[in-house]
Here is the input.
Amino acid sequence: MFILKKIIEAFVLPPGFMVPVMAVLGIYLWKRSRGGALVCAALAALIWIGTSGRFCDQLLRPLEDAYPVPAKPEGDVIILLCGGFRGTRKPYSASERLAPGTLERAAAAYKLHKKTGLPLLVSGGAPFSDEPEAEAAAAFLRELGVPAKMILTETRSRDTLENAAYSAAICREKGFKKPLLLTSAYHMPRAMLLFTKAGAGEITPFPVARRSDGPHYFNDWLPGAGLEARLAGNEYFGIIFYRVYYLFAKS
Here is the structure.
């Protein structure tokens, strides 16, 4: 019953419900328009494959495998890149104001801070909210017990390019030359590219929150089981975009 429920659920809830819709439409069109029927079949297959957990893992894995977690992280500051803000109005905990990506990174940054004793530079502005992401993440870190004097915030950035530019400026101002850059593993290749270009110093990547390392089950072959394809696509697009940008910026 459990397996049957999961299979039915995958084809009833979005985006998986579009697979049977496209299949039924393709059958209806088969005698009227073979081309239309084939297009429907192709769309059904793309939706199924493109939203399956196995497909998403294959997209994310090259990004997440680009940098290992250092066994003995050394540096003079931890740069935490925020990854979204939820903005709950009356939270019980400051963690409720953080999007899942930011929460994962902030929790890992706290552990790294406890292990190394290094100060934290939290980077993230307010591109889609009234409160900078960095302020919300800093409140969570203080709630965990990090002293306020150990936390710096960069609140102007709207994307990774600005994360890098503004954080690098703060590092130069404060004399930090060996930052530990902490962000989600899938985001690290783009972050390293931009922080290196910004001259942020001798950067050590510290990737966290891998999504493609977990075990696989039957539902990973079903539509809707993995929706990280957009994350991966955004990263590949960003890497290509900025490589082209810097290529033309030199000329």
Remarks:
- Residues 229-250 form the longest helix (22 residues).
- The chain has two domains: 2-51+218-250, 66-208.
- The chain is about 50% helix and 10% strand.
- The CA atoms of residues 86 and 97 lie 5 Å apart.
